[in-house]
Amino acid sequence: MTRALWVPTIWMLHAINKPLGFWFPSSGADPESGSPLDRAFLTTLMCVALWILVRRRVDWSSAMKENRWLIILIVLMLVSVLWSNMPLVSFKRWIREFQAILMALVVLSEPSWRQAIESILRRISYILIPFSVLLIKYFPKFGVLYDRWSGEMMWIGVAQQKNGLTSLCLMSAFFLIWSLVGRWQGHKTPVWKYQTHFEIFLLLVAFWLMGGPRGSLYYSATSTYALAVGLLIYLGLVLSKKFGFELQAGVLTTIAAVIIIFGLVALFSSGTNLAIFASRAGRDATLKGRTGVWAALLPVAMQRPILGGGVGGFWTPGTRAAFNISGAHSGYLDILLMLGFVGILLFSFYYLSSCRKAHRELSYNFNWGTLWICYLIMTLVLNIAESTMDSFTSSLPAIILFITVSSTKALRIGDSSK
After folding, report:
1. Which end of the chain is more exposed for a tag (fewer CB within 10 A), N or C?
2. Which residues does 392 contact at the CB level (< 8 Å), separation at least 6?
3. What is the pLDDT of residues 114-127, one digit of tens each?
4. How far apart are CA 226 and CA 411, in angstroms?
5. What is this structure's pTM?
């Protein structure tokens, strides 16, 4: 690893955390573009990333060839600015997506992409999980929110809302479990004496944060289900290797495709296919109002069903006020609103191609292949009733992007970065 890895690490910490404009308020903040401080900070990071890539002479053509669905998707996002109702806002939001790809290329340029991503995940977990506890316990003004209708307490920690915190905990908890199991199996050794003890403690803290305040219903059932599915997939992969069963790539891509279809069916069936999962999680048939949100937004999405309303062209303070909701609570619906059914197809092809690459990674480095596959499946499950996959700047989609792009080197020249 090199010092340049701190550039995508800091970018990830910023993406998951509250914006700088929240911590350091200043005049001139724009609800669509963020504060001047955030714009200057992200612009600086982007310029530094470009400078690193130029100096390291990254093979752009090979990276693009190996990630063709990603390139087609990011180009469609850029072109969608043309039919957006707010072209300038859409272009600014597209720049954020492009920044994510630049950060992934910086990780690709590292000597060992696996160690680089593991370092990023460990830094995120070590910094943001304790910081969230600090805010919740000692600075509730920043780490706690209250429901505007019921007044019930919600933990948000470093994130801007509850689901952002639970997504962080989901990503960190699975990584810590994966890391601890790998250490127990002898794949890795502790870097410092009490690392294993600290990571077990951190894992327990992540579970505690996911549970929310005692007696509160404000825990994320979707994140809990996503983590459970991820752990089941992980267990299945480990057992398949132990008993010498070779898992075919078609099985994994079929599982991923079924989850995507299931998420789309949930939208158009008002969540009837989720009823049994909702009841087991103590939720009502409306999934805490999500079905009403979907019913209100689907007709809007169907006004532009083919290409949608453009990247970032729908959610504004005006639309949130008009619908009296904070978001679609479905990654698949947000993609429909943004890029229509063409966008759904391209995002699906991107994730399915990533799934096939992850299967190939099982042959090079089984341990890393399991992490990749489980993160991908958890992302698809999480977005059935939460919304993160419509943007590469969200925690799990960003990590999947980093792994997918970074693995280009390993898949092209073999397993040279163990």
Report:
1. C
2. 97, 100, 101, 398, 401
3. 999 999 999 999 99
4. 28
5. 0.91
